[in-house]
C-alpha cells in the first residue's frame, strides 16, 4: 500500500491504558508527568481513566473498560486518526481474558504509525521527546488512495 505524510499535531491526543496490576503505576506516572500531560487531550479506558482523573486531577475522556469494549473503542479512534499516542502499561506476567482485544489495539497502533509505550521507561522517553510539543512528521497507509485504486479495478 502506498504511504502518505500526515504529521501529528503539537497538542496530542493520548490514550492511557493499564492492566489491573499496572493501574497504580500508570496513575503514579501520570502524577509525575502532570505538567506535560495537562497540555494534551487524554483518553482512558474505564477504571484506568477514572483513577487517573480522580487521583491526579487531570481531565480524561473515559471510555468503557478494556474487557467491556474500551480497547476496541480506542482502536477505532486510532483508525480514525483521533488518537496520536498510546501509553499502555500492560502486565506481561498476568493472563488477560481480553488479550485478543489488546493485540488488536497494539496492531492498529502499529498500522497507523503512532508512538506506543508499553512500559514506564519508554513512556518517559516519549514525553522527553522534542516532538511532544511540536509537529511530528510521520507516514501512514494511504487508505483513501488504496480505495480509489480498487474502485478503478472494478470498472
UniProtKB/TrEMBL annotation:
* Matching Gene3D superfamilies: Methylglyoxal synthase-like domain
Record-linked InterPro entries: Methylgl_synth (IPR004363), Methylglyoxal_synth_AS (IPR018148), MGS-like_dom (IPR011607), MGS-like_dom_sf (IPR036914)
Tagged with keyword Lyase: yes
The active site annotation covers: 71 (proton donor/acceptor)
Q: Does the keyword Lyase apply?
A: yes
Q: What does the record give as the reaction this protein catalyses?
A: dihydroxyacetone phosphate = methylglyoxal + phosphate
Q: Which GO terms describe its biological process?
A: methylglyoxal biosynthetic process
Of the GO CC terms on this record, one is: cytosol
Keywords of the record: Lyase
Q: Which residues bind substrate?
A: 19, 23, 45-48, 65-66, 98
* Annotated ranges, domain MGS-like: 6-155
- What Enzyme Commission number(s) apply to this enzyme? 4.2.3.3
**Example of a GO MF term:** methylglyoxal synthase activity
Role summary: Catalyzes the formation of methylglyoxal from dihydroxyacetone phosphate.
**Family designation:** Belongs to the methylglyoxal synthase family.
- Protein's recorded name: Methylglyoxal synthase
Organism field: Pseudoalteromonas ruthenica
- Lineage summary: Bacteria, Pseudomonadati, Pseudomonadota, Gammaproteobacteria, Alteromonadales
The gene that this protein is the product of is mgsA
Amino acid at each position: 500500500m502506498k504511504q502518505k505524510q500526515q504529521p501529528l499535531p503539537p497538542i496530542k491526543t493520548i490514550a492511557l491504558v493499564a492492566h489491573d496490576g499496572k493501574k497504580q503505576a500508570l496513575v503514579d506516572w501520570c502524577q509525575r508527568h502532570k505538567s506535560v500531560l495537562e497540555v494534551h487531550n487524554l483518553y482512558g479506558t474505564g477504571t484506568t481513566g477514572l483513577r487517573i482523573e480522580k487521583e491526579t486531577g487531570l481531565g480524561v475522556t473515559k471510555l468503557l473498560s478494556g474487557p467491556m469494549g474500551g480497547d476496541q473503542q480506542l482502536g477505532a479512534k486510532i483508525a480514525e486518526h483521533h488518537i496520536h499516542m498510546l501509553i499502555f502499561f500492560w502486565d506481561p506476567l498476568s493472563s488477560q481474558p481480553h488479550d485478543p482485544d489488546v493485540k488488536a489495539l497494539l496492531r492498529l497502533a502499529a498500522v497507523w504509525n503512532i508512538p506506543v509505550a508499553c512500559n514506564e521507561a519508554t513512556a518517559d522517553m516519549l514525553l522527553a521527546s522534542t516532538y511532544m510539543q511540536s509537529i511530528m512528521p510521520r507516514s501512514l497507509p494511504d487508505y483513501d488512495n488504496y480505495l480509489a485504486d480498487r474502485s478503478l479495478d472494478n470498472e
